[in-house]
């Protein structure tokens, strides 16, 4: 009893310590953001302590939190929900119950979770390897997919993929691509009543990484007949070669996702080498042969001046790390590294970025690169947004995102609506 009381007391002290972190004045409901941030960082601290003490791995402790509860595939009055498999990849299908006179739209949703955590079954909404503890049915991927199916009269596919560190890169990409390729077959689209000209692929956080990478692969693969009409990338992480962008500096110790935690989770995704993690923290993890790639992520050119601030651009130091991985230079892990000819084939794109977010600049740079090659891009930037805004600002953001997807699938690109 004394030990349990001591542990509870320690957690309370940690929570109280973290809850004192300053919150920007333009964020609504700062008490809620502060409490959320405190809870996440307390979990991060406990997981780190357990790992350092040899009790259990960091990711094992966080996974226990995620596995506390999952949703079952229960249908409701508006939507039929079933679980099946596409090319042996688990998926959950959401189909509207109301009759449709024409084939429906389709939305393929890939969940976030830093490639290490999460599932389409999650009740606990993911925020890149962390959890939103104000749990309710309205804070889940299951709720989001039900809402999308009902409001957009769309067939929604929530897909799962193998998780790191048990399965490292490129397993997550391979699973996502296999499931999407299977779904795009004529017989499958016909079976589920989907219009092959109105298909969207979406993902949040590192699910956005997978959505972007899969879209590039689908659009540039001549063997795939049906293509994606819209990709919706919600605060995506899109490159791994420069770990010291302005957003990384602005949010190094920021809300929800710190730079150190983000790098730790990416390292679990790519390798078990602790040496590499330290090199990424110093931004000295890239080999000499990667020099030609930095033009694709040169933030001094691709970022709007407002977000460059007074930072001075310098290329990372190359050739210092003996354990650099080819994955860092692979467009399946870093979609921003795709060349212009690959980007030209991409469909209309919706990108959501948040001001107080470690991966903010990736979305801005991808917007610039896509626009430079003629791809129609709608970019919304939340000046008061944090990483995981889709869960934190549930109702208004769901409605806004739903309308963006519906209009793009039905009427084509939303030109001239880039909000910066």
Structure write-up:
By secondary structure, the protein is an alpha/beta fold. The protein is 40% helix and 15% strand. The protein is built from 16 helices and 8 strands. The protein has helices at residues 2-18, 30-52, 58-66, 141-152, 171-183, 186-191, 206-219, 246-250, 259-270, 274-281, 299-302, 305-308, 340-343, 360-372, 389-392, 394-411, and strands spanning 79-86, 89-96, 104-110, 154-159, 194-204, 230-234, 348-356, 377-386. The protein has an 8-stranded mixed β-sheet with strand order 1-2-4-3-5-6-7-8, with helices on both faces. Strand 5, helix 7 and strand 6 form a beta-alpha-beta unit. It is globular and about 60 Å long. It starts with a helix and ends in a 9-residue tail after the last helix. Mean pLDDT is 84; it is low at 124-139 and 415-420.
Can you tag this structure with a few keywords?
420 residues; 8-stranded mixed β-sheet; 8 strands; 40% helix; disordered C terminus
How would you summarize the topology of this molecule?
Elements: H1 2-18, H2 30-52, H3 58-66, E1 79-86, E2 89-96, E3 104-110, H4 141-152, E4 154-159, H5 171-183, H6 186-191, E5 194-204, H7 206-219, E6 230-234, H8 246-250, H9 259-270, H10 274-281, H11 299-302, H12 305-308, H13 340-343, E7 348-356, H14 360-372, E8 377-386, H15 389-392, H16 394-411
Parallel strand pairs: 3-4, 3-5, 5-6, 6-7, 7-8
Antiparallel strand pairs: 1-2, 2-4
Helix pairs in contact: 1-2, 2-3, 4-16, 5-7, 9-10
Question: What is the count of helical runs?
Answer: 16
Give the overall shape, derived from the CA principal axes. globular
- The string of secondary-structure elements, in order, is HHHEEEHEHHEHEHHHHHHEHEHH
**Spans with pLDDT under 50 lasting ≥5 residues?**
124-139, 415-420
Largest sheet: 8 strands, mixed
Helix content: 25-40%
Strand content: 15-25%
Which structural class best describes the helix and strand composition? Answer: alpha/beta
Largest sheet: spatial strand order: 1-2-4-3-5-6-7-8
What's the total number of strands? Answer: 8
Mean pLDDT: 84
Taking all Cα atoms into account, the compactness measure Rg is 21 Å
């Amino acid at each position: 009893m004394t030990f349990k009381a001591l542990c509870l007391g320690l957690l309370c002290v940690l929570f109280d310590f973290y809850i004192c972190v300053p919150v920007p004045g333009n964020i609504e409901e700062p008490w809620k953001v502060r409490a959320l941030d405190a809870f996440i960082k307390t979990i991060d601290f406990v997981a780190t302590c357990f790992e350092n003490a040899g009790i259990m791995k960091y990711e094992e402790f966080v996974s226990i939190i995620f596995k506390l509860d999952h949703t079952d595939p229960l249908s409701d009055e508006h939507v039929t929900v079933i679980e099946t498999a596409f090319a042996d990849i688990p998926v959950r299908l959401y189909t509207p119950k109301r009759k449709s006179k024409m084939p429906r739209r389709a939305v393929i949703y890939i969940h976030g979770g830093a490639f290490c955590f999460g599932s389409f079954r999650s009740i606990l909404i993911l925020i890149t390897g962390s959890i939103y503890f104000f749990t309710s049915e309205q804070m889940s991927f299951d709720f989001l997919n039900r809402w999308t199916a009902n409001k957009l009269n769309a067939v929604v596919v929530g897909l799962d993929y193998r998780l790191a560190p048990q399965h490292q890169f490129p397993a997550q990409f391979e699973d996502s691509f296999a499931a999407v390729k299977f779904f795009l077959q004529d017989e499958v689209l016909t079976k589920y009543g989907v219009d092959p000209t109105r298909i969207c692929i979406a993902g949040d956080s590192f699910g956005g990484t997978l959505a972007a990478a899969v879209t590039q692969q689908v659009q540039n693969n001549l063997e795939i007949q049906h293509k994606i009409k819209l990709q919706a990338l919600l605060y995506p992480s899109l490159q791994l070669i420069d770990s010291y962008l302005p957003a990384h500096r602005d949010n190094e110790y920021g809300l929800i996702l710190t730079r150190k935690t983000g790098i730790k989770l990416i390292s679990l995704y790519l390798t078990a080498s602790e040496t590499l993690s330290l090199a990424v923290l110093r931004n000295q993890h890239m080999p000499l042969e990667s020099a030609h790639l930095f033009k694709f992520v040169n933030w001094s050119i691709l970022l709007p001046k407002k977000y460059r601030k007074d930072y001075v651009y310098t290329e990372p130091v190359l050739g210092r790390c003996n354990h650099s991985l080819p994955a860092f230079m692979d467009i399946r892990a870093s979609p921003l590294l795709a060349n212009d000819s690959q980007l030209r084939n991409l469909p209309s794109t919706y990108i959501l970025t948040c001001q107080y977010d470690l991966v903010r600049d990736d979305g801005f740079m991808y917007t610039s690169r896509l626009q430079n090659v003629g791809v129609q891009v709608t970019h919304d930037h939340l000046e008061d947004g944090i990483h995981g805004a889709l869960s934190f600002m549930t109702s208004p953001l769901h409605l806004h995102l739903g309308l963006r997807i519906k209009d793009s699938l039905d009427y084509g690109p939303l030109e001239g609506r880039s909000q910066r």
